[in-house]
Each structure stands twice: as C-alpha cells, then as structure tokens.
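Journal club prep — side note

Before the paper discussion, L.F. wants everyone to see what a predicted structure for a comparable chain looks like in token form. Sequence:
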Amino acid sequence: MKKLFLTLFLCLFSAVLFAEDIKYSFNFYTFFMGVQGKYGDDTAWDYQRIRVRPGMVVEAEHFKGVLQLNIDSFFGKGKTIDDVGLTERKKNVGVRVAYLEIINVIPDFTFTAGIKGFSYPYIMLGEGSLIAANYNFGIGNTSLIMMSIDEGNKFSKGGYVVAGEHKDDRKAYILDTVIKGDDFKIRPAFFFVKAEKDWNSDIHVYTYRDKYTHEKAYIAAVDMKIFFVDLNGAYLKYSNQDFVTEEKLNAWSFMADAAVHINLGDFSFLPFFTWLGGQKNEDTKKVSFTNTMGDMFLLTPGGRLFLLQSGGMQDTYVGMCSELLGIDTDKHGGSLGIHGSKTAGLQVSYKIGAFNCDVLYGYVQSDKKNILGNKYIGQEVDVMLNYNITPRLSVLSEMAYIKKGQEGFLDGNAWQIIVATIFKGL
C-alpha cells in the first residue's frame, strides 16, 4: 500500500510542479541527544542519537505537496538492559511524510493522499499511508481517514524470518471531529482498527492462515479543553485470537486524564491525574490500555512524567520496566502496568525571557494489587531546562529520578539525564 501511495504522490506532485504560481519552501530540522542513566546498580542508558529531517513544500492554487525525509543514527555503548532494540535501529534513512492535499476544489473540502502523520492523545502518534477527506463547517472540521498503520510485506521482525509475500496490513478507520470556540475545544473521535487475515499481533509474525482474522478494536475517545481544564477519555473494546493456542481474547479497558491550568505571573501550575484501567476478571481477560494502543499503533503518545509515563524526549518506553511491567520497549511509549495505573502529580513551570524551567512530580500506583498484595509503584521527579539561543536554535536538558515503591514492580531506584540541541531552520 505504501508503494501505491508513493507512486500516486509522485504523479500528483509532478502535476503541481507544472502548475502556474508555484510557491516553494524548504525546511531543515536537526536534533542531537546524549543519554546517560542507571537502574539500580546497572547502567540502563548510555548512547547518543542524531536526527536530521530535510523537507520541501510545494504549493499552487488548490494544491499542496509535502515531502520530508528522516535520517536517524544511534551510536555509543547502547542500553545494557535493552541493547537489541538499539542495535537494530543504529541507522535509519527513509521517507517520513510524502503527501498531496487538494484544497477547496469542492468548497470547504480538503482531500489528502500519501504518507502523513496523525496524532491523538494517549492513542496514536506516527505516520502511515492514508486517504483522508476533511470538511470545514465553520466552527470546526471533521475528517474521515483510512490509514494503513502497519504494512504487510516480506520482512524479518522479532526474530522471525518470513518467506514470501503477504499483502495484508493493519488498518485504522478514523472519524475525527474538532469543534472550537473562544474558551473551549472538543475533539470526539472513533477508531476501528482491523488486522487482516495474515497478520497476528501477539507474536508479531505474519501467518498465512486465511481462516483467521485475528485483531479488531473499537475505540471511542474525546479530547476536551474547557476554559482552564483539560479532559481526555477513551474506551477500548478489543478482540484477538492467539495463533498458537487459538484461544480467543475479548477484553475492554479505558483511559481518563484531567488537568487544571493555573497561571500566576511568570509561574504556571498544572495538577493532573491519569487513570488507566480495565476489566479485572481472570488473567487472560486483562489488557492494558496503553500497551494495547502501542501494539496496534506501534508508537503511542506518552503522558507527562518523563519515565513512568514516557513523556520525555525518548520515543520508546523505559527499558528497565519492560519485563516486570509487561511493556514492550521496541514498539511504543505508554504508561505502567498490565492491570493499569493511577498517577497523581503536579507540574510547575517558570519562564523568563528565552529561559524555561519545568519541574514535575508524580506518585504512581497500580490499578490493582499484584500477587504480593502491593499497589505502590513509585514516585518520580523530573526537571527540564530549556534555553532558546535563537528563535530556531535551542539547548535543553531533561533529568528524571524514580524512587522505587513496593516490591513486585521495580527492582530499584533509577535516574536518567538527557542533554540535547535542537535546530529548526529554513
């Protein structure tokens, strides 16, 4: 599907190039990051990363074409706890976005085709091949999107080498609406995610068994900002079938998040609460909301805490927690727990001139007691310092510290420091 969209994009892009009154613009984004950290007495992070994203935008009457490349490189000693994920991604060069928009050929409608990003709080973050139609109705807009979020083809993944071609993808069908006013924004959305016959997400390998259609998910979500209050919620209904045991899984889970903005001069305060939960019957029926989002969408937006909610600069979850907490670090960021979690915290921000400072504190407990009868996972304190040298060049540092809670969750305390330079130019 991605090859088809690229071919279509190049043909349409060529048509734009020969149109009259063409406007060109170029952009260039580069990012360098160094990471150090420990979990208990062991080194958990010790590597550097550089990312470069050159891009171009071409605009003509009723048309807009966007192309952006992504060049990633990892180097250094790696992460001792999760070396495999880092090693597999040491160098990555590819197309990040390549899409064409047709604007107002039909009044108030925009049609999009190509490889483009889509994001929704706590559910989805990333790029994929898509076709979308957007209608602007004045006080808002609504979009209908068909997106291929995992491409089916010959590949090697997760230690499995699969011969032959399999054409099936994992697709998402999305209805996304935004309604805005002076003091509010409401964004309801509905997702239907379906893995085709030859895809099995549980063991991450294609299986050519046409009699099984494994994965389906229905997600109803809402993202609201009313005056100084942010509210997010989502409900997930999920079904799948294990390829090996042929056992069927039907489960549900939910996410709820609330935050209040308080501004006092140069300071701002954000108390917040995040609850990730789901049904609590036998073990085979328990699914984590963010883990399932990550399984389906590959990368899920994190929360606010840098480590325990994957809210920091890294785009994979904390490797130290993966085995104990049922998190797969290679696929997504997400919050804690097979059985969900509850996080209460406070963010304090200070801004003066080109300098910004954010301090976060969070208390995290499991949504359900573990086998030892414990619920307290731990506490986290984060500090982020950011200085804008120029409007396009900034340097920043993130520091995080986790204090271990009760037994059965974390093996020890942890800390991480990130130093980065970001340039957004042209």
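L.F.'s comment for the group: Residues 2-17 form the longest helix (16 residues). Keep this in mind when we get to the figures.
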